[in-house]
Amino acid sequence: MSSLAPLGAANVSPPRPPSRSSIRAGEFAVEALIRVLGFSTIGFVLLIFLFLLREGVPVFFEVPLRGLFSTLWYPTFRLFGTLPLILGSVLVTVASIVIALPLGVATAVFVREVAPRWAREVLKPVIEVLAGIPSVVLGFFGMTYVAPLVRQLLGAPTGLTAFSGALLLAYMALPTIISVAEDALDSVPRSYRDAGLAMGATRWQTIWRVVVPAGRSGILTAVMLGMGRAIGETMAVMMVTGNAAVMPTSLAFLFKPVRTMTATVAAEMGEVARGSTHYHALFGIGIILFVLTFLINLAAAKAIFQKRRRGGLR
Amino acid sequence: MEIHPEVRISVTGGGSGTGIASLINGTIQIANASREMSAEEIAAAKKNGIDPVRFTVALDAIAVVENPENPVAGLTVRQVSDMYTGRFRRWSQVGGEDRPVVLLSRESNSGTYVYFLEQVVRRGDPKGAELFSPETLLMPSSEGITAEVRQNPNAIGYDGLGYVTADMKKVAIARGEKAPYVLPSAQSVRDGSYPVSRPLFMYTAGQPDGRIKAYLDWVMHDGQHLVKELGFVPLPESGQ
């Protein structure tokens, strides 16, 4: 709070300094406001979760659990098997991270450790701009360029596949992964690099054997955050994955169409009758997604926490 | 409502059955339906003192489309059904090139989906057991189908006739092996020779008069340009 007071005082330079009690009252008001705003965020998250529960929980009573986790998703015929959707989301998300992780870490290493100063100054803002591209634009690009390319290069029957979705998602997760991984590398103490080089290691060896391992918990956080971004993404995924609710039971399904949870909710919510089983089922998918994202974020938070506990040694 | 600002029209969703049931109960004045009322429904309405009158307001046709490079020119309803249920998985099984079949469909919440399922996949039997193959790609928009059909020679798709663009190839459809293959067009839909088409009705409670008559007149004449814009086939000039 005290940092706020000089800001006003220095610029305005009032004729008479305000009394001590009025400063205290003002401070109290600002502090209370900030506190309310801070806690309201928690309140909103709770309210959203309660809303999700209210709309989604009925499905667990309307459809037997066995039906809910069966393999057929035909909502028009009251078949609400969510398993293909869950596995579809998992397949696309994991594949996107497998693509994005090496690229992201390599880019972070380049930006932080290798690139000359001027290149870094250019690269960082450009990478941040990547994060701002609307996903529907990427989806349209994916539909008209990536999918045909995937079909022609891989000889698959169609280019609307889990792989195309994973490519786009990897692209979307990259800015997050790069920024967070770069921060992680940035906080590795300079003495580590100096020590590595002094031991006679080459620059490459120092980076690969000392700096990257020292920043690995930060890199893990980057991966988790990227995953959270990928699993919740809707528009681009809906446009390029083909939305066929098949069970992706083997890796070969990476090159076949799949249907994700997010795309299902987005595609079907618009026309569903309010209060119907189908409506509840879509919110049920929302609950599953919420829980999955929560677990991923929890894992990320745990990684950050562990990093703090071990102090500077990371 | 621009011409008659004092009239308010409320439209409620649900299927044809919902609309007809509401008409029988007397809660609404006009029921939109994509099928005719059954004899039981007409009897139930008459018992409530309501005499339903049928008006044909538009025609609906679904075109089966493929990539222009695909040499297959015509398919029977049964062949299309066998492709969409996943029984036929290669184009060679219907006289085409040796390519895999990629099935495209609209999302399951669209009316087109249900109509195509009943009329083509289940070959006219709404209570049939056939389902779309789980491998069917459900596209969230007509544009999704257009984009894929345009660039993928393996694809087969369907959509309302009004949505079919020039860069897709329409497939001629035959009712059976010996029946003629007919390309979808406003003409073949109007004369009933194209198999995958249906009239769209509005049922009124009794002979319409006053504002309801004015509304129906507007729908069947001035309103017909909207029919075309929405992807349906307008009525022939003569009206009903």
Structure description:
The complex is a heterodimer of chains A (314) and B (240). Chain A has helices spanning 4-12, 20-56, 58-62, 65-68, 83-114, 117-130, 135-154, 162-186, 190-198, 203-214, 216-232, 235-240, 261-269, 277-309; strands spanning 73-74, 79-80. In chain A, strands 1-2 form a two-stranded antiparallel sheet. Chain A is an all-alpha fold and 314 residues long. Chain B is 29% helix and 21% strand. In chain B, α1 (16-25) packs parallel to α2 (39-47). The longest helix of chain B is centred in the middle third of the chain and has 11 residues, at 111-121. Chain B starts with 15 loop residues before the first helix and ends in an 11-residue tail after the last helix. Classes of the chains: A mainly alpha (314), B alpha/beta (240). Chain A binds chain B through residues 72, 74-77, 84, 143-144, 147-148, 151, 157-160, 238-239, 242-247, 256-257, 259, 263, 266-268, 270-273, and chain B through 13-14, 99-102, 107-110, 113-114, 117, 131-132, 134-140, 144, 147-148, 151-152, 154-155.
Helical content class of chain A: over 70%
Widest β-sheet, arrangement of strands of chain A: 1-2
The helix-strand sequence of chain B is HEHEEHEHEHEEEHEHH
The helix-and-strand class of chain B reads alpha/beta
Number of helices of chain B: 8
Low-confidence runs of chain B:
none
Rg calc of chain B: 20 Å
Blueprint (SSEs and pairs):
The complex is a heterodimer of chains A (314) and B (240).
Chain A: H1 4-12, H2 20-56, H3 58-62, H4 65-68, E1 73-74, E2 79-80, H5 83-114, H6 117-130, H7 135-154, H8 162-186, H9 190-198, H10 203-214, H11 216-232, H12 235-240, H13 261-269, H14 277-309
Antiparallel strand pairs in A: 1-2
Helix pairs in contact in A: 2-14, 5-8, 5-11, 6-8, 7-8, 8-11, 9-10, 11-14, 13-14
Chain B: H1 16-25, E1 30-33, H2 39-47, E2 52-66, E3 74-76, H3 77-84, E4 102-106, H4 111-121, E5 137-139, H5 142-151, E6 155-160, E7 169-170, E8 172-174, H6 186-190, E9 197-205, H7 210-220, H8 224-229
Parallel strand pairs in B: 3-8, 4-5, 4-6
Antiparallel strand pairs in B: 1-9, 2-6, 2-7, 2-9
Helix pairs in contact in B: 1-2
